[in-house]
Structures are given as C-alpha cells and as structure tokens.
Amino acid sequence: MRAKPMEPERGPPLDLVHLARQCQCDAGLQDELLRQFRLQSRALWSQLSEPPARTLAEKARIAHTLCGSALAVGAGRVAEAARRLENEIRAALEEAPTKARRLRRALAALDASVSEAIAEIERIQVI
Question: Where are the alpha helices (DSSP H) in the chain?
Fold first, then answer.
C-alpha cells in the first residue's frame, strides 16, 4: 500500500517567472536548466527511492541537493517536499525509527511533486 503524501504546497509545479528572472530571460538557458533539472530530479529520486542500500544521512544529502536544484528552476513544490523529506530524515536520525510512516509520506509527497514538475516541463518543452 502506498503511503498517503503529505499535503504539498499549492501553486504551479513551475514558477516560470522565477525561472525567467534566474536566467535573465535567456530562453536557451531556461530550456537547458529545465532539461538538466528533469534529468537530475529523476536521478536523485531514483537514489532516494531505492532500497535501503543508502544510509539515511546520504538520503538527507540527496534530498537537500534536490531541494536546491528545484529552487533554482522555480519548482517550489518539489523544493518544499524535498525540504520536508530532509527534515524528516534528520529527525529520524536523531530520534527513533518511529518516524517511518511520516518518512514514507514525505517520500510520496516528493514523488508526486517531482512527477508534476517533470510533466509540466514536458508539456511546455519539446524533448
């Protein structure tokens, strides 16, 4: 049974105004950043969702990286979900594994946010 995702922050999957400002309205640069984010977010999500071959500390670092990458392209919901996941992992490291259910929910929320952002990128961009 899939964990119910934590309620993600509302708003568009991508803030294209933010992205345009970040890239100084350079459409080529925007396109390249979106392509890189699409590839990187999939790779990072794969690393996070694989069986527990990685330590929780490694997964916290991966979530932190995904958060920063998402912020750079205006994927605020991905960034918020990754930040929540990182916080849950760090709390789980400090406390007991009783946080497992919340951790699964945070992972599910990040999965949903990444999928939405990728779908939006693919909707607006010819691959």
Answer: 16-22, 27-49, 56-73, 76-94, 100-124
- Higher model confidence: residue 49 or residue 51? 49
Neighbours of 97 (CB within 10 A): 9
Closest to 48 in 3D by CA, of 13, 81, 10, 1: 81
CB 70 within 8 A of CB 41: yes
* Higher pLDDT among residues 52 and 84, named by residue: 84
Helix axes 100-124, 56-73, angle to 10 degrees: 30
Predicted confidence (pLDDT) per residue in 75-101, tens digit: 999 999 999 999 988 888 877 656 677
Residue ranges covered by each domain of the chain: 16-124
- In CATH terms, the fold of domain 16-124 is Four Helix Bundle (Hemerythrin (Met), subunit A) (1.20.120)
Please indicate, yes or no, whether the overall pTM of this predicted structure exceeds 0.85.
no
From CA 126, how far away is CA 111, in angstroms rounded? 23
Local structure of 97: helix, strand or coil: helix
